[in-house]
């Protein structure tokens, strides 16, 4: 079975700051992998490298068996991304934005696909509104609709529910779960919300100072390390990684 994403020995430093320090991991089809870690752990740097917008210092990345360094355009055809720090251009309407991204990805039956996404993310009322006038939660939903426009095989989500109210965040999690379960896609998801991670992720990677310190099922990992909750485990890994016990 071809892995959706395969990362090996990835390294990236900014001057003397080592942001990503030799990490290796995979994302399998139908899997949602949570990339967790305290502020500055290297999550966004990792996502930007996988997206091909940042060059690593060393290491290899394969997207469905295609090496990013040598077959970039093929590799990223079936990749997409959403993050609060990357909103749609604000002077264009929602429909115009989705049309442009759809055409960039060469989406077939684009009008139908846009209609489906507007319904899926409860955005029909904003179809002809400029994106810059939408609330932050509405803009987040727009970014997610854009992220699914090309039916990606690899979906990268950097804190996708950060500005959403609890009910909308739950709907979005259900949408992304459905995406992962139905097709062949895999998802790499960063979040600081441990409740959400436990709810949505099949597997988590704990990153600290650019290294993966722990990996496992978010539902069983805390007990394996003598902790009651994922949040408790997260705080221990972030503050005192060496004290971690293996239960
Ligand atoms: P957060 O949870 O706060 O979003 P993160 O895990 O996404 O954090 P990164 O943004 O990947 O962390 O940053 C990793 C490290 O690299 C940090 O120490 C950060 O200060 C540093 N860093 C990130 N981008 C740059 C840059 N362009 N130039 C210099 N240093 C950078």
What is the alpha-carbon Rg in Å?
Answer: 18 Å
Poorly predicted ranges (pLDDT <50, ≥5 residues)? none
Count every helix, treating DSSP H or I runs of 4 or more residues as helices.
Answer: 9
The fraction of residues assigned to DSSP E strands is 15-25%
Give the full name of the CATH homologous superfamily of the domain at 1-78 and 188-247.
P-loop containing nucleotide triphosphate hydrolases
Could you please describe the fold and organization of this structure?
This protein has 247 residues and is α/β, with parallel strands linked by helices. The protein has a domain at 1-78 and 188-247: Rossmann fold. The protein has 9 helices and 10 strands. It has helices at 43-51, 72-77, 94-104, 110-120, 136-148, 166-182, 194-200, 221-224, 230-239, and strands spanning 5-14, 17-27, 32-36, 58-63, 66-67, 79-83, 154-158, 186-190, 203-208, 211-216. The strands form 2 sheets. It has a 6-stranded mixed β-sheet with strand order 6-7-8-3-9-10, sandwiched between helices. It has a 4-stranded antiparallel β-sheet with strand order 2-1-4-5. α4 packs across α5. The longest helix has 17 residues, at 166-182. The protein is globular. Adenosine-5'-triphosphate is lined by residues 14, 17, 19, 37, 39-45.
